[in-house]
Write a structure and sequence with these properties.
The protein is α/β, with parallel strands linked by helices. The protein folds into 2 domains: 6-175, Rossmann fold, CATH 3.40.50.1260; 188-343, Rossmann fold (3-Layer(aba) Sandwich), CATH 3.40.50.1260. It is built from 14 helices and 15 strands. Strands 3-4-2-1-5-6 form a 6-stranded parallel β-sheet. β13, α11 (330-340) and β14 (345-349) form a beta-alpha-beta unit. α8 crosses α9.
Length: 395
């Protein structure tokens, strides 16, 4: 799909409403605990500044339910953006109020403003036309650089595009180019690795990937449903009967298509999901009835790693175990190293997957680290994203 881009539009001297994705996890002191998405927005901000455009940044943060929440103000994000970019950021304490409009109108070339949390206003998620028009009055052009929210038809992600020239930012362009390669004509062999918890959450992307990949590898809690569907023991791990039935139908479909679905042959099991719990490695046919599966074992880590490292295309989303607990992070970290060692087109999305790369210092070895969660999965399902569709170049 051809998009209108800031690289093809005369942005010089324009006041630009830039939708960024600063929805980042916060630490106990209210500062960003992970600034990946903030760093990802800086190239677009710099591009605009270099052309004397005036960026007016806007984003949501958390789930404030349409009303102000002091713990979710954008002040900490503004401070981190200033630290990372070396730029002076003017944080404004509102979005569409008259005083905000006056403050934005008074900005000069070289200045940057960051609006308050968009989701302090219920009109944002409702995609209220009046709210979208009010946002549009702040600027001359609209730039969407928030791929992570592109699957939401909200006022700031889609509605405002009806009132301003709507352009894709640099990050948006990179995301679509990298993910587009996975959909259009991926180099082969193409291997996808999926983790996470619930089968229902990932079933659409699993179905889409099955039609495109040469091998589909599974870990995490989701793999438990597939192991149960294959007749293996999963001990005390919680898997609903509906998930097992969904997994069973999927495995039959994969078999009919001659596709490889890689499941763990051994797993790490623990008495409880806790840092100090007793744990050990067992075959999938020997899981004790009162223990739970918490990670893939060393043999699938090796087999999966071999497939990934020799692939021409790799997509990885989701942890392969209870990653947040150190003793159960081995499978996820092994996969991080394998993807980093792959010389092909590698794409990683999902918070825990990216966190594993960050912790091991391997982010730079990945061809593309996606800032999208749900947006990445929906795009790879082949669905049209509202925040992308509004940027389509008209013939």
């Amino acid at each position: 799909m051809k998009l209108a881009s800031i690289t093809e539009y005369p942005v010089r001297g324009k006041r630009a409403l830039v939708r960024v994705d600063f929805n980042v996890p916060l630490g106990k002191d209210g500062s960003p605990a992970d600034d990946t998405r903030i760093r990802a927005a800086i190239p677009t901000v710099n591009y605009l500044l270099e052309r004397d455009a005036i960026p007016v940044l806007c984003s949501h943060l958390g789930r404030p339910a349409g009303k102000p929440d002091p713990s979710l103000r954008m002040d900490g994000v503004a401070m981190r953006l200033a630290q990372l970019s070396g730029l002076k950021i003017r944080k404004l304490d509102g979005v569409v109020e008259p005083e905000i409009g006056r403050a934005v109108a008074g900005l000069k070339a070289g200045e940057i403003a960051l609006l308050e949390n968009l989701r302090f206003y219920p009109q944002e998620e409702a995609n209220d036309p009046a709210f979208a028009r009010a946002l549009a009055r702040l600027a001359d052009i609209y730039v969407n650089d928030a791929f992570g929210t592109a699957h939401r038809a909200h006022a700031s992600t889609a509605g405002v595009a009806a009132y301003l020239p709507a352009l894709a930012g640099l990050l948006m362009g990179r995301e679509l180019a990298a993910l587009g390669k996975l959909l259009e004509d991926p180099a082969r062999p193409y291997v996808a690795v999926l983790g996470g918890s619930k089968v229902a959450d990932k079933l659409p992307i699993l179905s889409s990937l099955l039609d495109r990949v040469d091998a589909l590898l599974m870990g995490g809690g989701m793999a438990n449903a597939f192991l149960a569907a294959a007749g293996q023991s999963i001990g005390a791990s919680r898997v609903g009967s509906e998930s097992v039935e969904q997994a069973s139908r999927f495995l039959r479909r994969a078999s009919d298509q001659g596709k490889t679905v890689g499941l763990p042959v051994d797993v790490v099991v623990a008495r409880t999901i806790a840092p100090d719990a007793a744990f050990r490695v067992v075959g999938v046919d020997r899981v004790p009835p009162d223990w739970v599966v918490v990670d893939i074992g060393p043999e699938p880590a090796r087999r999966f790693g071999d497939l990934v490292q020799t692939a021409a295309t790799v997509f990885w989303n989701g942890p392969l175990g209870v990653y947040e607990i150190e003793p159960f992070a081995g499978g996820t970290e092994s996969m991080a190293r394998a993807v980093a060692n792959c010389g092909g087109h590698t794409v990683v999305g999902g918070g825990d997957s990216v966190a594993a790369l960050e912790r091991l210092g391997l982010t730079g070895a990945i061809r593309h680290v996606s800032t999208g969660g749900g947006a990445t999965l929906e795009f790879l399902e082949g669905r049209e994203l509202p925040g992308v569709a509004c940027l389509r170049r008209m013939a």
